[in-house]
UniProtKB/TrEMBL annotation:
<feature type="region of interest" description="Disordered">
    <location>
        <begin position="920"/>
        <end position="947"/>
    </location>
</feature>
<dbReference type="GO" id="GO:0000793">
    <property type="term" value="C:condensed chromosome"/>
</dbReference>
<feature type="compositionally biased region" description="Basic and acidic residues">
    <location>
        <begin position="512"/>
        <end position="530"/>
    </location>
</feature>
<protein>
    <submittedName>
        <fullName>Uncharacterized protein</fullName>
    </submittedName>
</protein>
<keyword id="KW-0175">Coiled coil</keyword>
<feature type="region of interest" description="Disordered">
    <location>
        <begin position="759"/>
        <end position="781"/>
    </location>
</feature>
<feature type="coiled-coil region">
    <location>
        <begin position="646"/>
        <end position="680"/>
    </location>
</feature>
<feature type="compositionally biased region" description="Basic and acidic residues">
    <location>
        <begin position="369"/>
        <end position="388"/>
    </location>
</feature>
<feature type="region of interest" description="Disordered">
    <location>
        <begin position="369"/>
        <end position="394"/>
    </location>
</feature>
<dbReference type="GO" id="GO:0007076">
    <property type="term" value="P:mitotic chromosome condensation"/>
</dbReference>
<feature type="compositionally biased region" description="Basic residues">
    <location>
        <begin position="931"/>
        <end position="947"/>
    </location>
</feature>
<feature type="region of interest" description="Disordered">
    <location>
        <begin position="512"/>
        <end position="555"/>
    </location>
</feature>
<feature type="region of interest" description="Disordered">
    <location>
        <begin position="182"/>
        <end position="209"/>
    </location>
</feature>
<feature type="compositionally biased region" description="Basic and acidic residues">
    <location>
        <begin position="539"/>
        <end position="549"/>
    </location>
</feature>
<feature type="compositionally biased region" description="Basic and acidic residues">
    <location>
        <begin position="766"/>
        <end position="781"/>
    </location>
</feature>
<dbReference type="GO" id="GO:0003682">
    <property type="term" value="F:chromatin binding"/>
</dbReference>
<dbReference type="GO" id="GO:0000785">
    <property type="term" value="C:chromatin"/>
</dbReference>
Length: 947
């Protein structure tokens, strides 16, 4: 397409090229100038972009330089503060050292003045203390050496830091130089901007037309963005539904996955078809636009060629007058060509400058990358230094504590030494030696203190540098966190774009459904048309039947008119054949339409069934998920309740067990009591049995004694009888012996009396014994009765206790059996609940795995969307490449046409010029409107030949 601002550009270029000469230029020159103008615009845009980049880099470098300057200022301030602190510390140390030396001198003077008796003991004590001090000094020397090593390491690190600081300063100087160079380049570019500002004004007019052309594309992009937003909303709703539908069975998942794969394939096909059709439409539109542009360009070329022909005719008519002007125009053309060459050189120089600036930019980028790497290394070193700092802090703290302890010990030792020196007046020589050793030790201690102070200062400096580095690292970490947040936001934007693409796919599916509906409507229309044709065929068939019946009647009625009727019948048959063919065609079309309709209906039914099944599955999934969530909640609540019941049952079991233990303890105590009572009963029974045995023995003894007494009485009576018989016999036989017999009788009487007394005594004794035995029997019987009563009461109590214990045992056994049954039932319920819980956990895990799969499937869909976006971007890039190629081809065609027109015009001018030269000078003079040039013809010819 042509630009309306071309004439204005040509005028501006003409005005710039030839301000004094006439404006007589060809279309080829105009096009060449326009080509140069386009190149200048491109170079100008590139230069502006580069200048903007240079300015950005300049600003960044200036900000970096300001940051470095601030850092250097902070470091200098800190170093000054530390130097001031060091000076104050050194002055305080010097004052303490002077005071300590003055005290030592006073002590030495006192020692010199005084002397005493305890010379030997003080020498020995001073030697021992000198040895201990030497050992402590050696330890301090070793510590100082180790600290000197650490100080050396710190000094090395400080040197490395100073070296790095110097490197950074050199880099800053290099950057300053580069900035100055960039400033100079920017100044030159500003001048070039001022030059090209006028050219930009003309190019802005062309850009307006491009903007008008791009407005349609921007509107399309806005529409697409609106569609993408709608798709994002739909995707969000889909994601919400997906979050709801996160638990379903494996079989449903497999079927859904299969259906989703089929849907994805159909979507891909539809998207590919739509994208292909869109690309085809775009390509057709581009081809149409290109063809229109080519036609317009051809018309322009025709117009230009017509104008050139007219101009050539006018030139032929006015050549005589414009011969000198032609040479001037040639000179001006040479000047313009030289200017064009100079412009090309400038452009080449600008390109070289651009390349140099690009190289410098690449160098700067590389330097920035190196600086970033160095910053990372510095951060790593800072972290290491922080660790070293922490270790050195701990070490210094320990050393400071140890030094304070040593100082306190030494102060105590010095106090003891002063006391001993006051006591030891006589020990001057030994104390002088001690003084020398102490002075040496003091010098060493002072040197050590100075070294420690230096180390402390260095460590403090190191700590402050570490703090600064830590702050820088924290700032870097904050920047990294911000970058990560930006990345997260970009990822969210990518997610939104993917959701928008999914919504686009859904909209495409809806479009396909709309197209299917339109096709269905078209099929309905075709069906209605087929029905109309069928109705027509039926009407024709009915008419045919009517006509055949009429013809038969006519044939039966009138045979005369057979020929005419036959002709009419033939005509009607031909018409019928045509109608039959039309019917067959209509029926074939109907069949084809029916097949198409059936296929489309089947496809629609399948799609609708699939969509309905998907919707049902989605609803079922949502219902299943809701039901599963409710069931899971209920099961969780049931589990909680069961856990509470289990806990309560366990508590009840525990209390039952405790009761059982208490009852068992009571049973054991009762059993012990029963055993004790049985033992007491056995003991009482044993005592009763022993007493019964004793009673029986006494009875037996009494019975034996009574029998003995009876036997003795019998024997006495027998003896009395025998004695009486003897007396009778003796009285009868020996009357003489009366006295002796009387004596014997008296003796017997005395014996009998004695026996009677004995019997009476024995009877009395037996009665007393019987009384005693009766009394004892009564006592024993009373005791036995009391014991039996006690036993009966104890047995009754024990029986009651046994019955109560039996009842309690029965109750406890019942409660135990009941609790055991409850425990078994609860354990069964627990096992069932555990099984349900395991099943629910399995279901949850399966649903979670299904969710993960769905997430992976969504991720895959998003990946497919990204892939399709990449393919669409590739298609767009290909289209853009085609457009650019077409544009380049058009530009090349225009260039070629311009060159052809230039060559044709030059050839025509040369032919005309040679013709004019072939004519004589007189003829030339006789021509009208001839204006002779100022120079002679020979000079003109020589100049033209030279050209």
């Amino acid at each position: 397409m042509t630009d309306p601002s071309e004439d204005g550009r040509v005028r501006t270029i003409r005005a710039a090229v030839s301000a004094d000469g006439p404006e007589l230029e060809t279309a080829g020159q105009q096009k060449l100038l326009l080509h140069v103008w386009g190149k200048l615009q491109r170079t100008e845009g590139a230069l502006r972009d580069e200048i903007a980049q240079h300015r950005k880099l300049k600003k960044e470098r200036e900000e970096d330089v300001a940051g470095y300057k601030e850092m250097l200022g902070k470091i200098q301030d800190l170093s000054e503060q530390k130097n001031a602190q060091l000076n104050a510390m050194m002055e305080s140390i010097r004052a303490e050292r002077d005071a300590f030396e003055a005290g030592n001198q006073a002590i030495v003077q006192l020692l010199m003045e005084r002397g005493g008796v305890h010379h030997h003991q003080l020498l020995v004590n001073s030697k021992d203390r000198g040895d201990t001090l030497k050992l402590s000094v050696e330890r301090l020397v070793n510590d100082m050496e180790s600290q000197e090593l650490t100080i050396g390491q710190l000094v090395k690190e400080k040197k490395n830091l100073t070296h790095k600081k110097e490197q950074l300063e050199t880099e800053l100087q290099v950057l300053k130089k580069q900035l100055s160079g960039l400033k100079t380049a920017s100044m030159g570019s500003d001048r070039k901007e001022k030059r090209l500002q006028g050219q930009l004004e003309a190019s802005q007019k062309k850009l307006k037309s491009c903007e008008d052309a791009n407005k349609g594309l921007s509107e399309q992009l806005e529409k697409m963005r609106g569609d993408m937003k709608m798709l994002t909303g739909k995707l969000e709703s889909m994601t919400a539904t997906q979050t709801k539908v996160h638990r379903e069975n494996v079989s449903l998942r497999r079927s859904i996955k299969q259906k989703e794969g089929e849907i994805q394939e159909t979507r891909r096909d539809t998207v590919a078809l739509t994208t292909h059709n869109q690309l085809k439409e775009k390509c057709n539109e581009l081809e149409k636009s290109l063809s229109a542009e080519q036609q317009a360009h051809a018309e322009k070329l025709r117009k230009v060629t017509d104008k050139d022909k007219r101009n050539i005719e006018q030139l032929r008519q006015e050549l005589e007058t414009a011969h000198g002007e032609l040479e001037e125009v040639k000179e001006k053309l040479e000047t313009t060509l030289q200017q064009v060459h100079s412009l090309q050189r400038d452009l080449h120089e600008k390109e070289l400058e651009n390349q140099n600036t690009h190289q410098t930019l690449q160098k700067l980028i590389k330097e920035e990358q190196e600086a970033q790497e160095e910053n990372r290394e510095l951060k790593r070193q800072l972290s290491l230094k922080e660790e070293n700092q922490n270790t050195m802090r701990n070490r210094l703290h320990k050393e400071s504590t140890s030094l304070a302890r040593q100082k306190e010990e030494r102060e105590g030792e010095l106090a003891a030494v002063t006391r001993e020196l006051q006591e030891s007046r006589e020990v001057e020589k030994g104390l002088q030696l001690d003084k020398e050793s102490l002075s040496q030790q003091l010098k060493r201690i002072q040197e050590e203190v100075g070294g420690y102070q230096v180390r402390l200062l260095e460590m403090e400096q190191f700590m402050e540098t570490g703090k600064q580095q830590v702050t820088t690292e924290q700032e870097a970490n904050h920047t990294k966190i911000k970058e990560l947040e930006d990345r997260v936001s970009t990822l969210d934007m990518d997610k939104r774009t993917l959701s928008e693409k999914l919504d686009e796919r859904i909209e495409q599916h809806q479009k396909l459904q709309h197209e299917l509906r339109t096709e269905r409507d078209a099929k309905d229309q075709l069906r209605s048309e087929v029905q109309r044709s069928q109705m027509k065929a039926r009407s024709l068939r009915e008419e045919k039947k009517k006509s055949s019946s009429e013809l038969e009647q006519q044939l039966a009625s009138a045979e005369a008119e057979n020929l005419t009727l036959q002709q009419k019948i033939d005509k009607l048959k031909a018409e019928l054949q045509n109608m039959v063919l039309a019917n067959t065609k209509a029926t074939g079309a109907e069949e084809v339409l029916r097949r198409i309709e059936k296929d489309l209906r089947l496809k629609l039914q399948e799609r609708e069934a699939e969509n309905h099944s998907l919707v049902q599955k989605a609803t079922e999934k949502s219902e299943d998920t809701a039901r599963l969530t409710a069931e899971v909640k209920e099961q969780k609540e049931i589990c909680k309740r069961k856990h509470g019941k289990i806990d309560s049952l366990q508590q009840e079991v525990q209390t039952g067990r405790e009761r059982l233990a208490a009852v068992e303890a009571e049973l054991s105590t009762l059993q012990q009591n029963i055993s004790h009572t049985t033992e007491e009963k056995s003991a009482l029974e044993g005592a009763v049995s022993t007493m019964c045995g004793e009673l029986e023995n006494t009875r037996q003894e009494l019975a034996a004694a009574g029998e003995r007494a009876k036997l003795e009485m019998k024997t006495v009576q027998d003896k009395l009888d025998t004695a009486e018989q003897r007396l009778a016999t003796a009285l009868a036989e020996k009357e003489d012996k009366k006295k002796s017999s009387q004596r014997a009788v008296e003796e017997l009487k005395t014996k009998v009396e004695m026996l009677e007394q004995r019997l009476t005594q024995a009877s009395q004794d037996s009665s007393e014994r019987a009384d005693q035995l009766g009394h004892t029997e009564r006592k024993f019987s009373e005791q036995i009765q009391t014991l039996r009563q006690k036993l009966s009461t104890v047995e009754a109590q024990k029986q009651q206790e046994r019955e109560e214990l039996g009842n309690q045992l029965k109750k406890l056994s019942a409660t135990l059996s009941h609790t055991q049954q409850e425990l078994q039932s609860r354990e069964q319920e627990l096992e069932v609940t555990k099984a349900r819980l395991s099943e629910t956990e399995k279901m949850c895990s399966e649903s979670e795995s299904l969710l993960d799969r769905e997430k992976s499937s969504t991720v895959n869909l998003q990946q497919q969307l990204t892939d399709e976006q990449g393919t669409s971007a590739k298609f767009r890039e290909q289209l853009q490449e085609l457009v650019t190629k077409n544009a380049t081809a058009l530009g090349a065609q225009k260039k070629l046409e311009a060159e052809l027109t230039e060559k044709q015009s030059l050839i025509a001018l040369l032919h005309f010029y040679h013709r004019c030269r072939s004519k004589s000078g007189e003829q030339i003079q006789s021509l009208p409107r001839y204006r002779p040039s100022k120079r002679p013809c020979r000079e003109r010819r020589s100049s033209s030949n030279r050209r």
